[in-house]
Design a protein that fits this description.
This is Bzip transcription factor. By secondary structure, the chain is of the alpha+beta class. The protein has helices at residues 7-10, 22-25, 39-55, 61-117, 127-143, 149-159, 172-185, 216-221, 235-240, 271-279, 282-289, and strands at residues 160-166, 169-170, 187-200, 203-213, 244-256, 261-270.
């Protein structure tokens, strides 16, 4: 039978008041779970007992002993609470680890099954994904100044009907030509999607913003009438040069349900508002676009 070690045996460096009764000595280092003393708790309990005695030296010894006993019993209960919490934590952790191991084992089994059966599941991209990819491809194309033309052309041919209606023109090449014009007229072109909605199962409307920077290239190619024969820009051209336009757009995609490809692409761009923000005059805006190669509403 195990014999509880005395406080002094458990910790030679600790000392206590020899006047403490055996009932209190028995509480030193005690735990509820095993009713055995723990050497790691003895020093702490001795310190608690001595501090209470030192603090309450003016009260009768019997009261000191009661205070010490209450404090030690409280510590014993706290140890038990900590032990229970630690046990629950270990059990919860072990359960989580077992769950993860089971999930990993199942995944490995599923992967092995798929590999052994050479299972291939073709997944058609959703209309949302196609519309998002359209704008991503556009941004890549204009950022590369058309260098990604073959990739863009392949994507558009895959996405659209051969006779797709693009604005008032027909054919996939009409869509690609619109992309090309952005690289001809502007710098730092970028489209950002703000919202996408599907009014019907076969139509998707994307709200976007298109930002462009007006450079000398813009003046030469889009607004040549703002530069005189000697190449000198007009006052209006000077005001526009270096400005960044941020235009709100609405892009409509309509799919042909029989081919599941885009049959119509309609883009409406509001350049008027952004131009007014720069020039602050409808008359000046009219002068800029009166002989321009682009229109206010693309």
């Amino acid at each position: 039978m195990d014999t509880p070690e005395s406080p002094t045996e458990g910790n030679r460096g600790a000392s206590m008041d020899p006047a403490l009764p055996s009932s209190i000595v028995g509480l030193i280092g005690m735990t509820l779970s095993s009713r055995r003393k723990r050497a790691s708790c003895i020093t702490s309990d001795l310190k608690t007992a001595n501090e209470i005695i030192a603090t309450n030296h003016h009260v009768p010894v019997e009261l000191q002993q009661v205070l010490v006993a209450e404090a030690l019993e409280k510590k014993i209960r706290r140890r038990e609470s900590v032990r229970i919490a630690q046990t629950r934590f270990r059990e919860k952790k072990m359960k989580a680890q077992n769950t993860i191991r089971s999930a990993i084992a199942k995944l490995k089994s599923d992967i092995k099954y798929l590999e052994s059966n050479s299972l291939r599941i073709p997944i058609a991209p959703t209309k949302w994904a196609l519309a998002s990819e359209y704008f991503r491809q556009f941004n890549c194309y204009v950022a590369s100044h058309g260098a990604f033309g073959p990739t863009a052309s392949e994507f558009l041919h895959e996405m659209m009907d051969p006779d797709v209606l693009v604005g008032s023109q027909f054919g996939v090449e009409a869509a690609l030509e619109n992309w090309k014009l952005f690289t001809v007229y502007f710098e730092d072109v970028r489209v950002e999607i703000k919202d996408m909605k599907m009014p019907t199962p076969d139509t998707l409307v994307a709200s976007t913003t298109t930002s462009v920077c007006i450079t000398n290239k813009t003046l030469r190619n889009a607004f040549p009438h703002l530069i005189d024969d000697s190449g000198k820009p007009s006052p209006l051209a000077t005001r526009l040069l270096g400005e960044k336009l941020v235009m709100k757009d609405s892009v409509l995609f309509r799919w042909d349900s029989s081919t599941d490809k885009v049959a119509q692409l309609l883009t409406q761009t509001d350049m008027l508002t952004s131009m007014l923000n720069v020039l602050h005059s409808l008359e000046d805006v009219s002068s800029v676009f009166c002989k321009a190669r682009i229109t206010l509403h693309q």
